[in-house]
Amino acid sequence: MPQILAGTPRWLATVRLALPALATVCNRCLESFSPMTDSTDQSARPTPGGTVTLAHGSGGKAMRNLIETVFVRNFENPLLAPLEDQARIPLEELRCLGDRLAFTTDSFVVDPLFFPGGDIGSLAVYGTVNDLAMSGARPLYLSCGFIIEEGLELEILHQVVHSMRKAAHRAGVAIVTGDTKVVNRGSADKLFVNTAGIGVIPPGAQVAARHTRPGDVILTNGSLGNHGAAILGARGDLGLEVNIKSDCAPLHDLVEVMIAACPDLHAMRDATRGGVAAVLNEFAEAASVGIRLDESMLPIDEEIRGVCELLGLDPLYLANEGKLVAAVPKPQGAAVLAAMRAHPAGRGAAIIGEVLEHPQGLVILKSAFGGERIIDRLVGEPLPRIC
Amino acid sequence: MRYVDEFREPKNVEQWLANIGRLAEQLPLARERPLQIMEVCGGHTHTIFRYGLAELLPEVVEFVHGPGCPVCVLPMGRVDDCVALAEHPRVTLTTFGDAMRVPGSRKSLLQAKADGADIRVVYSPMDALALARRHPDREVVFFALGFETTMPSTALTVLQADKEQVRNFSLFCNHITIAPTMKALLDDGALRLDGFVGPGHVSMVTGTRPYRFIAEQYRKPFVVTGFEPLDLLQALWMVLKQLADGRCTVENQYRRVVGEAGNKTALAAIERVFEVRAFFEWRGLGSIDYSGVQVRDAYARYDAERKFSLPSLEVADPQACQCGDVLRGSLKPWECRVFGTACRPETPLGALMVSSEGACAAYYQFRGIRCQPLVATDTQPEPVR
To answer: Can you give the residue ranges of every domain in chain B?
Structure first.
C-alpha cells in the first residue's frame, strides 16, 4: 500500500513479543490441538488509559508495561513461555497433520479501524487464516506485527488486540510471536497490522488456480460484496445510511467439508480485494480457460445491490472477507454445494458459473436476458484501504 | 430492488427486442444499410455495454456512441491547467474521482497527486466548500465538470459560498452543454445518423425543449430516455416508429423523471452563476461555439481562472487518436488504429478510453476486443494474454 511505501518512517525500538513453544516436546497429535487456554474471555479487558507514545517503543518500562497489559494478557496460550525472540514449533506435531507447510503473510491498513461486522484485528486474523485455508491447509500459528502511530489511544489498541484474541480463538489458531513499532505522528495512520501464518496441508490436496479445468463449475459460499460495501458505509463520506455488515469470517472449516466432499477440488481462493472478478480472472489466466458467470445465479444481498446501483459500483469487484470462490469438477458440484450449504459459513452457497475451453483467459458474464459482457480486471484502485 | 428490477425484466426485454426487429424490417431504409441511432449520453453507452444490448439488437439497427461523457471530452490543455492549479503550493484541489486518470500533456491528476500535489476526491462540490471552511489557510479549488446534470450543484455551491463569504473557495469551471455540440455534429457532412436517443439526467434539468431544433431543423427523431435496459429499448423503438411514420419530433420516454420545462429552480441557479462562453475546446471534436459556460463577473472571486494565473495553452489531441471519427459514428471503436494497443484503459490516449462511460473504454472492458482479431493497424496488436 502506498501509505507504507511512501517515505521512510523512523523505526523506533523494537518490542518483541516472541512467545516460544513449550519447553518439552508435546507428544500429542495436533488433531486435539487447542491453543487458547481460556475461552471465557474474562481476564482480557483491563482498560489502560492514555495514549501510545514514543516511549512505548523505546524498550523501557512503558514498553514492558504495554506488552504485559495488552499483548501478553490477550495472546496467552499453552505455547507461551519465557519471551524469546522466536516461537519454536515442534515438527513432530506438524507432521501428524500433513506433508507440506503453508506459509503466508498479509498486511492490514483498513480505514476505519472499526466497522460493522469487524475491525482491523479480526480482519488481520481471518485474512491470514483464510489465505492458508485456500490451499486446503489447516491454519495453526500466526505472528503479528503492529505499526502504531504515536498518539493512538491505548483503549483502541486494546480493543483491536482483544478482537484478535477472540478471532484467533474462533479460528483455532495461536498467535505465537509478534513485534511492535511506534512511529512519529504522521508517519502512519493510527494503526497498521501485519500477520503471517503457517498451516499444514493434508496429503493429497492439490488446490491451485492453474488446476481449473473446462467442465468445472464455479461455486461461492454466499452473498458477495458485503465487506467492501460495509467499509464504504462506515467511512460515512457517501452520506449513505446503510445497514451492511462485513462478512469477515474464518473459512478453513468450510474448506475442510468441501475437500471432504471432493478431494479432487481444483482451485480455490478467497475473494478479497478486487472481489470475485479478480479471483476468476486469476483462474482464467493461470489455467488458460474461459469462465462464464450467470448473472441470475449470483448471490447478492438486496442492500448491496441497492448501494451498488446508487454509486455505480459492481458487486463482483467489491471486496469480501469471508467468501471464497472454488472450481470443482462438475460431477462433484452438487455434492460440494450440499456440503457447503450444510455448514454455517456456506448457507448461502451457490453455483455461479462454469469453466469453458474458450475464450482463454477471459471471464464473461451472461446477463439475465442473454447479453454477454467481459468481466475484466479492475484498472486502478477505486476503493483504497479496504483491508 | 423495486423500481429497478421492473426495468430489467427479461421477458419484457425480449418483447421489446422483437418489436424493434419487426419495426426495423418494415423500414425501406434499413434494407440498404443498418440504421444508425446515436445515444448521446455516456450513461446510455454504459447501459448498452453493461447489459450487452448491442449484440441483442437485430442486425439492421446499431447504436452509435455519442460525445456525452464529460470526463472523456475534456481537452488536454484544460487538464494541464488543472494540474498546474493542483501544484500551486497553497491550493487544495478537489475533484470527482473519475477525473483523476484523464491524461494531460504532462501528467494526470493521479500522477500529480503521487508527485505531492494536494488533491482530494469529493462526491459533491459542497464537500469541497466544507473543506474550505475547515482549512481557511488553504485555497480550495473545485474541478467543476459535467453537463447540465452537475451544473446546478456547482452553481448552488457558489451561491452558498457567497452567502457565507467563504473567500478561499473557487472553481475551475469546465461545465459544458450538449445542444451546441449536437448541432456541430449534425452540421458535419460526413455524419449519417438516422435518429437520436437523448440524455435523461441532462433533460431532467433542461427539459426537452432545447432539442426541438434537432427535429425541426435537421429532421431527425429525438427521444429522451432513462438508463435501464427497457428504457433504452423502448426509446429505440420510438425512434424507429417515428422513422416508419415519417415523423420527426422530440418525444419523452423518461416521463417518470423528465418534464418538458425541466427543473426551474436548478435552471435559475445555473442562470445566476454561469454565462455561455464564446467557444470551448472538446477533446476529439475541436473547438465548438457556445458549448461551455463560465462564471459570471458577479461571482468572479469564485472563478479559479481569474484568481490564479494559468498557462491556458491549447494542446493538440494525440495525432494517432481517431476519437473524432468514432464520436461522429463514422468509425467503430475497434477500428481506430490505436485501440487496444497504444490506447487502453490503463494508459488512455484518447478521450473515449478514459472513463467507463466512454465508448472505447466500454467496448474494451465489456466486449473484450481481445477475443476478436484487430483490424489491420500500423501498430503491433497486443498478444492475447
So the answer is: 76-177+262-307
